[in-house]
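Standup notes
- DV: blocked on the single-chain target, sequence here:
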Amino acid sequence: MKTILRLLALLMLPALAGCGAAAAPCRVSSALLDAIPVVGGIAAAPTDACADVIDP
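- DV (later): unblocked, structure below
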């Protein structure tokens, strides 16, 4: 069982190695804030900047 778990962990590493995984929380927060009418775009600007710095 341990061998299978180690193999699965090794197979998942390339998917998590990119900066996209680190920027995901910023992108999700930005999308949620952007859905707010009128002020959503303004409120989402800092989280957009955060995501752009992490994953250009």
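- Follow-up: The longest helix spans residues 2-17.
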